[in-house]
Amino acid sequence: MKIALPTREGRIDNHFGHCEMYTVFTVSENREIVGTETIPSPQGCGCKSNIASVLQAQGVVVMLAGNMGAGALNVLGNHGIQVVRGCSGEVKTVAEAWLKGELADSGVGCSHTHDDGHVCNH
To answer: What range(s) does the Dinitrogenase iron-molybdenum cofactor biosynthesis domain occupy (predicted)?
Structure first.
């Protein structure tokens, strides 16, 4: 299994669509992290980018994120990626907490308007 986290300077980036990169952890059947890789973040809004298909192609099935709006949430869900919002902190610590069952989706998203005028609720 693989889990991804929007990352900036080793921590969960609170703004999913504008993160520096995605940290992807490979997890064993024993729920232990056995590998780490990073995927550069595409430019632009997360709900308008190809990141969901890229992550899906890499085998990612869970996204541990800070804030995320309905647009990105729907796109990831349509690609078979479960989203857990409300995460914060150092990415490996967050991933380990999720693996221990200590995290649940906050159900809270965010919304704002981009310079180009569209609102993607993230």
So the answer is: 9-99
Within 8 A by CB and 6+ apart from 17, the residues are 44, 45, 46, 47, 49, 72, 120, 122
Tokens of 55: 């992550």
H helical segments located in 40-110: 51-57, 70-78, 91-99
Query: What is the spatial distance between Cα 7 and Cα 5, in angstroms, rounded to a whole number?
Result: 6
CATH number of the domain at 17, please: 3.30.420.130
**How many domains is the chain built from?**
1
Q: Kindly report the number of other CB atoms within 10 A of residue 17's CB atom.
A: 23
Considering only CA atoms, give the Rg of the chain: 13
Query: What is the pTM assigned to this prediction?
Result: 0.84
Give 66-104 pLDDT, tens digit per residue: 988 888 889 999 999 999 999 999 999 999 999 999 998
Tell me the C-alpha distance between 68 and 64, whole Å: 10
DSSP-derived letter for residue 42 is P
